[in-house]
Amino acid sequence: MTQAPTETGPSRSRRAPSRRRAAAPPRRRRRVWRWIALGLVVLVLAAGGTGYWLYSDLNSNIKGVDIDRALGDDRPEKLPTSGQNVLVLGSDSRAGANASLDTGKVAGARSDTALVIHVPEGRSKAVAVSIPRDTLVTRPECAKADGTTLPSAKRVMFNSVYSLAGPACVVKTVEKMSGVRMDHFLEIDFAGFKSLVDAIGGVTVTVDQDIHDKSSGLDLSAGSHRLDGTQSLQFVRTRHGIGDGSDLGRIGLQQKFMIALLSEIKKQDLLGSPTKAYKVADGLTQSLTTDSGLSSLTKLAEFSRSMKGVDPATMETIMLPVQYDTQDPNRVVAAEPQSTQLWKALRTDETIPESAKDSPAKGGRTP
User: Fold this and answer.
1) 63 near 286, Cβ under 8 Å?
2) What local confidence, expressed as pLDDT, does residue 129 receive?
């Protein structure tokens, strides 16, 4: 896999335009799209007054992957009315800052969480489709980072694709199974997730039943709780203390947490605290990997501004309809015809039919 070079930031002669953006009316700035991690980076730019060194420092944190070069022309067609589609991955890497977190001892990294964020034309709403990590999929042939080729294979676990061939292959796998072209890719690891939650002072979640998971360490009674970064990581990773103990129950918690996180970000005035905004963005960008089309603060800002009309309150969260595999009850496969209906709606930018939101396996919809 080819890593795109990271931009080093604008020259000193371009500082003035940055300050002019900082002087924009507060009301306008607050409308910046904040429902995804990209918006947090933009807040730092909008805060202004921090100098070129700050921009350059944060800009150099972001890692880029040239998805277009890695995948070539073997991709779904980009339809003129297909909106924007972003593949968001939560990586369970144990490398670097992640090693100090209590996240298990599995070697390498996998896509612990996978979301296809679809923003229709008009940029006024969004839908997030979770892909269960235990889903058996057909992995397409992929180029590996060392120059070798990973052959196509059937009935492989979705979350194994990342560890075997990296994020470009995950993008290719999602595109093959959905027929939906991914416009962008974004990945954040454990350390970045924890840093984000701690930087904003925690996130409040409400659960309707007790959760006691010795594996993740999560111990919550029914009701509302303010979670710090460590507890939030436990919350989105727990699986044994909820539902049937499978990944499907965890997806419901992940979706619940995502809405709570976005609501918390929306109500906080990060623009009023440049120091806090920098802390958020610094921790986040150090754990952020994107496609080369978003691999700089400038590109992230431009993309985020194009999405400023999206209201987090209107975002719908659903799970890819799945059913338990007949050969291995510990695995799931895409349910038909629901999955085909879902992907077709995203591909053509149409309303998702209610029939496409029902999953034969448990935990198919967020309460």
Assistant:
1) no
2) 94
Q: What burial class does residue 99 get, using C-beta atoms within 10 Å of its C-beta: 0-12 exposed, 13-18 middle, 19+ buried?
A: exposed
Distance CA 204, CA 196 (A): 14
Q: What is the pLDDT of residues 132-171, one digit of tens each?
A: 999 999 999 998 888 899 999 999 999 999 989 999 999 9
Rounded CA-CA distance 98/37 in Å is 19
CB 197 within 8 A of CB 228: yes
What one-letter code names the amino acid at 202? G
Half-sphere exposure of 310 (CA within 13 A, CB side): 27
The two tokens of residue 293 are 């089309």
Nearest to 77 by CA among 185, 183, 186, 184: 183
Strand positions, DSSP E, 24-139: 63-65, 84-91, 111-119, 127-130, 136-139
Residue 272 phi, psi dihedral angles, 5° rounding: -80, -5
CA–CA separation, 282 vs 267, rounded Å? 20
Q: Encode pLDDT of 248-260 as tens digits.
A: 777 888 888 887 8
Does position 10 have pLDDT exceeding 70, yes or no?
no
Closest CA to 315 of 306, 307, 323: 307
Residue with the larger pLDDT of the pair 24 and 236: 236
Do 143 and 168 meet the contact criterion of CB atoms below 8 Å apart?
yes
Q: By percentage, how much of the chain surpasses pLDDT 70? A: 72
Structure tokens at 94: 């144990």
Q: Cα–Cα distance between 159 and 315 in angstroms, integer?
A: 25
